[in-house]
Design a protein that fits this description.
The structure is a single chain. The chain is rod-shaped and about 75 Å long. The protein has 66 residues and is mostly helical. It contains three helices and no strands. The longest helix has 26 residues.
């Protein structure tokens, strides 16, 4: 019984090492997706209509505070 327990524990340790790099790959994919999303949002915000709307909202907020 002790040998089976040791083998199972060693197998679990090896399995966890094999998948250790998966988190790094997942972070890389998530980072790329976030950068792509930020690029799309930046392109939208730089467009004329949205830029005018955001400027109007900021000016309205600043004029209320005065």
């Amino acid at each position: 019984m002790k040998i089976r327990h040791r083998i199972r524990r060693a197998h679990t340790a090896l399995a966890s090492r094999k998948e250790a790099g998966m988190t790094t790959a997942e972070y890389a994919v998530g980072t790329l997706a976030a950068c792509a999303f930020a690029a799309v949002l930046l392109a939208i915000v730089k467009s004329g209509g949205i830029k005018t709307m955001v400027t109007g909202v900021i000016e309205a907020a600043l004029s209320v505070a005065s």
